[in-house]
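Hi R.,

Here's the chain you asked about this morning:
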Amino acid sequence: MKIALIDSGIGLLAASAAVRRLRPDADLVLSFDPEGMPWGPRTPAGVTERALAVAEAAAARRPDALIIGCNTATVHSLPALRARLEPGIPVIGTVPAIKPAAAGGGRVAIWATPATTGSTYQRGLITSFADGVPVTEVPCWGLAEAVEHADHAAVDAAVSAAAALTPDDVTAVVLGCTHYELLAERIRAAVQPAGAAPVALHGSAGAVAAQALRRIGARPAPDAPATGTVTVLLNGREGGLPEAALGYAEARLLRTASPAASQ
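And the predicted structure, written out as tokens:
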């Protein structure tokens, strides 16, 4: 079994680690776009062009499925990627976990990039999945960029700023950018009021990994032998994980995998 994931940067690590936990025997192909990152400020057409390029590089390695490990690329590029790759390679997008967060009925905060916050896309998800639930959209200025570069001081500043915009009575926080899932415990600590019930965090990585397995008719097997390899593609060329990635547990988990053979 081989699963490919694409993103401009290290946001794909959360879903990659989720796949690794569900299927330690699965080979992974991680296709990055260091020459074109970040995708967020690009036009929809620009994002799609870059996403198609890294997806085609991954597709050349013959994966059984491809995960778009980026919310922005999913919004703008999912139809084009499916048109290009399916039915041969199922393509799975990443959608913010608003529906499960709203299921509890309490106040929900959605942490997202400034470009996504207030967007027609996010407002549509709120209307569809959180109608009648109080929702606060929280723009996280500079947080994805700080995560990407493992700039801890900038991460602390961005998390503190976003936490200050988050109501004290929230019961759930949606991590609306895949980069944020790498900071789950830090974000939880920042939004957790003293003496209150634990705030639930809702990311997408676990659901995306499970959906990828379903699309190819596979089942989770977390106790399978850890024989899966990891191939890293940097604009189509084999390389290693970005140095900044290694500060996150998800990347360290992937490094315990068998080294990828030349393909």
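Residues 168 and 195 are 12 Å apart (CA to CA).

Let me know if you need anything else.
M.
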